[in-house]
What we know:
The protein has 21 helices and 11 strands. By secondary structure, it is α/β, with parallel strands linked by helices. It has a 7-stranded mixed beta sheet with strand order 3-9-8-7-6-4-5, sandwiched between helices. A two-stranded antiparallel ribbon has the order 1-2. Strand 1 (71-73) and strand 2 form a beta hairpin. Helix 8 packs across helix 9.
Amino acid sequence: MSAARMQVLSSRNVRLLSRGRNEVFAGRSGAQRPGGDPRTRSLTCPPLSSSSSPGRALSSLSATRRGLPKEKMSENGIMSRAKVLTIDTMNPTVKKVEYAVRGPIVQRAVELERELSEGMKKPFAEVIKANIGDAHAMGQQPITFFRQVLALCSYPELLSDSTFPEDAKSRACRILQSCGGNSMGSYSASQGIDSVRQDVARYIERRDGGVACDPDNIYLTTGASDGIVTMLKLLVCGEGTTRTGVMIPIPQYPLYSAALAELGAVQIDYFLNEEKCWSLDITELQRAVNEARQYCNPRALCIINPGNPTGQVQSRQCIEDVIRFAAKERLFLMADEVYQDNVYAEGCQFHSFKKVLFEMGPEYAETVELASFHSTSKCYMGECGFRGGYMEIINMDNEVKDQLTKLLSVRLCPPVPGQALMDLVVNPPQPGEPSYGSFIKEKGQQPDMFYCMKMLEETGICLVPGSGFGQKDGTYHFRMTILPPTDKLKILLNKVKEFHQRFTQQYS
């Protein structure tokens, strides 16, 4: 390009261009700037109206076409730039998220509370929130031992305070020794504190009657919800008809539908049978998965047992059927078992999916992929705010397991106080320890009452708990009146002995 033709791009002309076209070049008549080079006209802009400027011409393009937010005039006459993030430009999957337990009704409840506090008259004196399982908010008192240990961990100077029982102090010391710098204020490993994961593994072994549990398969989480969403993140992929589909029960806990909407997965509904106490029917699972395969790729089956919000407890036979179904249809099983301690109905018993899976033999125990979840938020604990939980994974591909660890490392670690609380839930005070009596009293049913009730349910033998007669604190007995013939007496005593062995193995 010649020097003359380059002149139009000089810094002087660029500056002049901003003042308006007529100051740089002549108008449409073709007259040129005095002293200018006539050849520069070949690089001029298209003709503009005399009242226009290049800036105004550009601004006449729509903000949407230029990818820029529109400007707005504020009340004081100053132009203000529009928001970068608006309801129209935000992530569309988030707008699809609904969470019924904290929706508009709950928001209105908060407003009503405020109005009552301001003296506004209502046909009621207080707002009672029964929308979510928040036991302590409804007046349930925390377990003293749990709070004592957490207090000691948070403020170790209290370890010298004689008002705290020695077993609470020893438990706090053990937890603190597992924390970096002996402080709960330090990060833990992304998978959770090693000693806590070991205690969780031992708890699962006791719960499941001796089925082995590897601490390396335990991941401590920010409540059960965190683990559930993390697993869904690993499972969701594909587009169109290959998008991941996840089977969830209806009625369901809205965490599932909300998480699936946020992740852009396909929700596959299977309906529980209300006429049969909200039971789960395999034929309904088959219907749901067959229909879903026409528009997505079903990859996971979520089970809530005991049910939420329905409260049903799956029978062992039902769990076996579900496991066989998952194996046949190549589905990843997700077992939400956070209400496992809340089983009260006569004839109902909690069976963990992990226990049943392993008792079904290698054909299933070594192939079916399972993630199960538990939490400190429900049952007798009700410690929702500490956000403690765990998940156990079974038969996960080792490379995927590495990716899971990587994903968890992004959020560094779950809250350490929640991890400590999870440790106390799976390893509570034991018989003979100073806090055992008060712990059992606060938790609920007396041990001898529990023992006799379990014996009645499992053997048909009716005994009387010793607490009905009086006994030394920290000791528990039962009363048995024996009048049958000698041959029946031997059978009776053998049944009692066999039950005691089973009970001791499961609950010691």
